[in-house]
Every structure is written in C-alpha cells, then in structure tokens.
Design brief:
Rossmann fold, 2 domains, 22% strand
C-alpha cells in the first residue's frame, strides 16, 4: 500500500485547493437541497439499542414487555429501543487506467470523484463515518473511516489527485481487502467500470456483509465506435497497441455487440446478488441519476 505521491507538475497547490473547494460548494448545495433527508431515510443503522423503560400503553407490542421490571414494580413496563443511527460509509474507487478515459468533457474518474464527494458530504452531515479504498490491480490506498469535514476533503483530494502505480483492474482484490478490514456492516459504494472477471465470490460475500451499491462508470466511447477511418488504439490497462478500421460497419457493429454483451453480463451478475445499481455516464449529469436512485430506494423501503 502506498502513500499519496507528488501531484502532477501542472497542478499547483493553489489550483488543487480551488478545485476541491468548488467541488465542495457544488456538492454541498445538492446535499442541503435534495439529498440529506433522503440519505437518512434510505440507509439504515446497524441495529436497535435499548433506550429506556416506560409504562405500557395500549397498542404496544406484547413482546416489548419487560417482565422482570413489571414484577418488581407491580406495573407493566416495556423496553423502548432506538435505532443505532451512526453508519460507516466506505467509498471503493477504481483508479485503473481505463477510468481516466472520457470522450466528452469529463473522465470517468472525475465523475466518480464528484459523485463520491456528494455521498461523503451526505454522510458527514448525518454524523456518519466515511472511509476510502482506492484500487487498481492492487490496493493503492486505504483511509480508515472517520468523521469530519477536514477528513472528507482529504478523501476528495485523494480521489482526484492520487497517482496509482497499477494500470489494470482487480475487483477481486479490492473486495477481498474490504471483506478483511471492514468487519462491521457498512454502506459501500463501488465506483468502477467493472473491466474485470472472476470476482464473483468476494462480491457475493461483500453483498451479504454490507449494504453494497454498485456504481458502474460508463463513457459513450466504451459503447460505440465512431466512424473516423483507420485509427491506432491502445488498451489503457495492458498497453497493447492495435489498429482498427472504424469505417467498416461490421467492425463497428461487432464493437457495439461486445459492449452490450459486457453490460448485460455485468448487470445480470449484480442482480444475481441483489446489489443495488446506479449507473453514471460521462456525457450526463450525475445528479439526476443519484437522485433517481435515492427516490427508488426510498419508495422500495416504504413499501417493504
């Protein structure tokens, strides 16, 4: 596991601080206007804690009667419980080379950073702890969960500016590490383009132990090949170079079919383990997608 390296030469300390500050102001507005109450309602605490004894009232559950206190006092008393509200939120963020890709104005990594920032500020506004796990084909950085604005700003800085050593993707390694270091139930957001295979077992374990939400990151360039003639391409994770004739309709069709098959397989796997999913795209505002996710989950919890 490595520490944060020096920032890129073109990024001065002042530029970094300004960008993080702008991101904080933007996400704070969303949190205050739309997300904070919903966040509180759609993520449950770890359980119920005993609060106090009180006299029995008509309509109380008989199972809540404390017979020992009732026998001592001669009056019927019940146990009152309150939800243990404090949560632990873990942000798992994929920093593999493919996350740096963006055919529009922002890369997948930049969109993930903004969305993760919004979730982190929701958490601290509700007095929850937030932790961060950055990964590629190895564990790059783990920041244990803590509370507070200063801690959250550090997490945002790491997501935006941490320079990873690895280029590939190991969801198996990231989820295995999560399952080992996070023993208590947590709310886990997994930001990745899921360019990996063979991670089913640790995914299943994580979905049982935690409230796991998958956040697939997509770019239009991942899904369609533009017609721009013969192009030289490079796989960002393996470094393999090859040429593609994008003017050939058959080549473009094969590319789109492969991309669609990958999406179907990914979504089937997530449904198989009952993992909530919210897909974010680089060519769309992440705010409506997150808001729709919160509303769906809130509605489902009210009817369950």
């Amino acid at each position: 596991m490595q520490s944060t390296r020096d920032n890129k030469p073109e990024q001065s300390t002042g530029d970094i601080i300004k960008k993080i500050r702008r991101l904080e102001l933007r996400t704070r507005r969303f949190v205050e206007n739309a997300f904070s109450g919903q966040y509180h309602s759609v993520f449950k605490g770890r359980g119920m804690n005993f609060d106090e004894f009180r006299p029995y009232q008509i309509g109380d559950e008989i199972r809540t009667i404390d017979w020992n206190v009732t026998a001592r006092t001669g009056e019927t008393y019940v146990r009152k419980y309150v939800e243990e509200r404090e949560l632990t939120v873990i942000l798992l963020v994929d920093l593999s080379a493919s996350e740096g890709f963006g055919s529009r104005q922002a890369s997948k990594r930049e969109i993930a950073a903004e969305a993760a920032s919004l979730l982190a500020f929701c958490a601290i506004r509700n007095n929850d702890k937030v932790g961060l796990l950055l990964f590629t084909d190895r564990i790059e950085l783990f920041v244990p969960p803590r509370k507070g604005r200063t801690h959250t700003l550090r997490l945002i800085r790491e997501i935006l500016y941490f320079e990873p050593e690895g280029r590939g993707t190991s969801l198996h390694g990231a989820l295995t590490f999560l399952n080992r270091v996070t023993t208590r139930r947590a709310v886990v957001f997994l930001f990745s383009d899921f360019q990996d295979q063979g991670y089913e077992r640790p995914l299943a374990i994580a979905s049982r132990r935690h409230d796991l939400i998958a956040v697939p990151m997509e770019d239009p360039g991942d899904l369609e090949l533009p017609n721009v003639g013969i192009i030289s391409a490079v796989d960002p994770e393996t470094g393999r170079r090859f040429q593609v004739n994008s003017a050939d309709r058959r080549v473009r069709a094969a590319f789109s079919q492969a991309a669609e098959a990958y999406r179907r397989n990914r979504d089937h796997l997530l449904r198989q383990y009952s993992i909530d999913t919210v897909t974010l795209r680089t060519d769309q505002d992440y705010f409506p997608a997150l808001r729709a996710f919160f509303l769906r989950r809130e509605k489902r919890m009210k009817t369950s």
